[in-house]
User: Which sequence fits this backbone?
């Protein structure tokens, strides 16, 4: 028997919540690591910093590109969203680790 559309919408909503939570955890982790490495003190354009992170990701993937096409290197998100997520994640964990 097929699921009614209302059940599918509920499931999609739950999955979107799980995705947001997972992205927040990942952003907080990366933000804490970046702060420990001193990235927060460097004056650098966001695009340049993103390119550096992409090079790091490529290095740890063994030189292979990530699966799927990426227009702007941020998975379809704008840069300010990524920065605000990283900044909030860094703020959340940065102060307690000094």
Assistant:
């Amino acid at each position: 028997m097929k699921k009614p559309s209302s059940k599918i919408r509920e499931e999609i909503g739950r999955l979107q919540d799980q995705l947001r939570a997972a992205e927040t955890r990942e952003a907080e982790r990366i933000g804490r690591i970046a702060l420990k490495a001193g990235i927060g003190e460097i004056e650098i354009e966001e695009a340049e910093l993103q390119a550096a992170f992409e090079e790091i990701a490529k290095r740890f993937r063994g030189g292979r590109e990530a699966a799927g096409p990426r227009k702007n290197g941020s998975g379809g998100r704008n840069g300010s969203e990524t920065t605000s997520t990283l900044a909030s994640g860094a703020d959340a964990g940065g102060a307690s680790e000094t």
